[in-house]
Amino acid sequence: MISRKQKFLTVVLIIILAVAIVAGVFGISYYMGGVTFPWEVVSVDSDDTQSAENTDEISQVEEDVSDDEIDEDISDSVTEETKTKEDKSDTKHSKNDDSDADTDDESDDVTADGVAATGNNYGFYGALSVDGTNLVDSDGNLVQLIGVSTHGLSWYPEYASAETIASLKENWGINVIRLAMYTSDYNGYCVGGDDIQAALKDTIDAAVEAATANDMYVIIDWHTLNDGDPNEYKSQAIQFFGETVRKYADYDNVIYEICNEPNGDTTWDDVVKYAKEVIPVIRNVDSDALILVGTPDYGKDLDSVIENPLEFDNVMYTYHFYAGSDKSSARNTLIDALEAGLPVFISECGFVSDDGDGDVDTKESAKWLDVIEEYGLSTVVWNLSNKDEGSALISSDSDLTKNWAYDDLSEQGQYFFDWLSDYEGYTEE
To answer: pTM (2 decimals)?
Structure first.
């Protein structure tokens, strides 16, 4: 039997154990963060709660927008970089690289009838002479001739007609046309027979009269090519120039190019020998005539000329280039000759390859045109025809021989036309 004292001790022990257990549970919970005692409670305003919620929402929106803006910024940056590179690659001579610009240019440079017109008009200066490296007028002012060369007169005589020449002056504003009369190629002057010779002379006569009527200069070009050495047909050249100069002795606008492109094994000494016999034939009739002399290597060897120039007045040496083939070294040859004091006339050039075909090389063409502008070089572009080749100025799809629309021009024709529209001629600084 259990006494009262033992019962009391048992109850006390149970109470102590219960308190210990409860205290342990609360202690562990508080340590783990699961219990907040009343004295630890802090009141929170409803506005602060709402602000916190709004902050969370705004933060989320900013994250969403930020991603989109970053994508757009990257896109804009790439676009701007691309545009900058494209802008840098453009030059003042490459208007036809931009189709939108072409549309604007075309709309600005047309007449009411839709004829392409540059708005420029290169001048007529009367009798010309050579002073140092320059072509000058009677007052000694540097002048610049800008124009085109026909293709072979036996093949495309329609582009040397009076109507064509008048159209070139009125719409393009050029001041010189070169009449390319082949000597030995098919139906050339020296191989085609009497009828061909007569027809060629008639074509030249009509063109000279038309150029004179339109205040233009005209180059009569003895177009040697396959006959690489001009001495091969020297006697025919003497006969032709002797007869021709008598017709035009009183014309201030007629220029004589006595050999086009000596080539092959022909040296400058060979050309000098030829020139010393042909030039006096012209000088005996017209002592002041301007004479152009072709240089070896298809009109590119000026170094040999520097070493041994001709002893005649009013003589210039021709230089030919084709931008698709002739690069910086060819330009350096030209510049070196000019700096050495050699008078140079670019009597033939193109913006395509030197075979007369291919696409326009706008990058190299712009560099050549820069040189032409800087030195005020007289320049003639090959060729005025609709032959199916890159150097033809008229599209092969066009049968027009005058009053061309912009779309009637070939790629080279449009490139040249755009330059004519921009370039107002050399002005001394």
So the answer is: 0.77
CA distance 135 to 145: 9
Cα–Cα distances (Å) from 167 to 24, 110, 118, in that order, read 114, 13, 12
Quick check: 190 pLDDT over 90? yes
Quickly state the pLDDT bin for 273 (edges 50, 70, 90). Answer: very high
Domains of the chain: 99-422 (3.20.20.80)
Cα 371 to Cα 35, 100, 284, 333: the distances in Å are 91, 28, 36, 12
Whole-number Å distance between alpha carbons of 84 and 86? 5
Q: What is the pLDDT of residue 330?
A: 98
Structure tokens at 326: 């002739």
- Residue 70 above 70 pLDDT? no
Nearest to 325 by CA among 271, 364, 290, 293: 364
Amino acid at 4: R
Active site residues: 261, 348
Gap between the Cα atoms of 155 and 246, Å rounded: 26
321/327 Cα distance (integer angstroms) = 9
Which helix (H) or strand (E) is 119 found in, with range?
A: none
Confidence band for 112, pLDDT divided at 50, 70 and 90: confident
Which residues, at least 6 apart from 55, have a Cβ–Cβ distance to it below 8 Å? none
> What distance separates the 2 farthest-apart alpha carbons in the chain?
169
Helix, strand, coil share of the chain (percent; to 5) = 50, 15, 40
Phi-psi region of 174 (alpha: psi -120 to 50; beta: other; left: phi over 0): beta
> What number is the average pLDDT over the span 322-349?
98
Per-residue pLDDT band for 160 (boundaries 50, 70, 90) equals very high
Residue 67 clears pLDDT 50, i.e. is over it: no
CB 229 within 8 A of CB 270: yes
Place of tokens 């330009």: 331
SS3 readout for 47-95: HHHHHHHHHHHHHHHHHHHHHHHHHHHHHHHHHHHHHHHHHHHCCCCCH
Do residues 252 and 289 touch, judged by C-beta distance below 8 A? no
Contact 302, 337 (CB under 8 A): yes
